[in-house]
Structure formats: C-alpha cells, structure tokens
Amino acid sequence: MNKTITLTLEPLTKRSFSPYGDVLSIEESPSIIINNGYAQKHHNLCTMDANENGGQSTVHIYLAKKRPFPLAIDMLEKHPFFSQAFIPRSNEPFLVVIAKGGDTPDLSTIKAFITDGNQGVHYKRGLWHFPLISIKDKEQFIVIDRTDSGITQNSVEECIEHYIQDKKIILNLED
Length: 175
What we know:
The strands form five sheets. Strands 2, 10, 11, 13 and 14 form a five-stranded mixed sheet that branches. The protein has a five-stranded antiparallel sheet with strand order 3-12-9-15-6, with no helix packed on it. Strands 1-17-7 form a three-stranded mixed sheet, with no helix packed on it. The two termini are 29 Å apart. The chain contains one helix and 17 strands. It has one domain (4-171): Jelly Rolls. The chain is an all-beta fold. 2% of the residues lie in helices and 42% in strands. A hairpin with a 4-residue loop joins strand 4 and strand 5 (39-42).
C-alpha cells in the first residue's frame, strides 16, 4: 500500500454532484400545484436509466445499519446497465462516496458528500460508488433501480465490485 487518502466530506449540492448524477430535493426544483391546490408536485427530479435489455424501474425499501467510523473505503461498486436512486425516509443525513472511472475506478476523482437529511441522490449508470452509508441505525431508504422481472433473457450484469488494494482510503465522520 503506497498511499493513504483521507476523504473530506463536502455538502451535497446540485452543482457539485452534477458530474455523478442528480440531487433529489425540492430545493430549487421545478414544481406545479396539483390536486386542486392541495399538493405541490416537484417533477422531473431525475430520469431513471433501467431499460437495458427489457428491464424496468423498480422500487425497494432498504433498512440500513449504522456504519462504524472512521470507515475504510476498501471497495467501490458500479451498475453498468442502470442508474440508481437513494431517497431517505427520515430527515437524517447520510453519506455518499463516489468516483469516476471506466473498467476500474479513477481514485484521483474520489469524493465524499454529506446530505442534509432531506436530499436523495441519483447515480448515473456506471458510476463507481461505495454502498449505502447510514450514520444511524435502522434508517429506511427508498431505492429505485432496475429489475429484469424474473425473465432470464432480460437479465444483465447487475453489479461490478472493485476492491482497492494499492491505497488506503479513510472516511471520518466529523461532528
């Protein structure tokens, strides 16, 4: 191991996250009044990319466990054939670690973001990321990604994992 990288958490903003995907938030988003004035619809926050090989978008609920800190970022994963969205069901912040790259992650681009508790994220197809990082136990997240609906001919490679062996990457949670 020839180098240690300590990640610094950045506030999640639409501008800072735009190279990697979308911030899912009502802040600065287009909206219209619907349902005879009883609801405000914030629309087109992201467009899911899940149709590869006959796939469809699907909704899940993840129940996350609190991660220990400092957290070793020892692997990254990507979904080469679909995008993925994480939307918290509470007002608690969560962390996002992402990197650009092709067949392997480009660790010179690795970044860490902290959400404000009301923001979700939409990862572009093929974006390298660390799995869900919850800072509290039993946090629920709505996750939207791809399903092949159990049809064998619709299946694709869902997840590629890359284990980081030549660098030590540490993420600290600052109070």
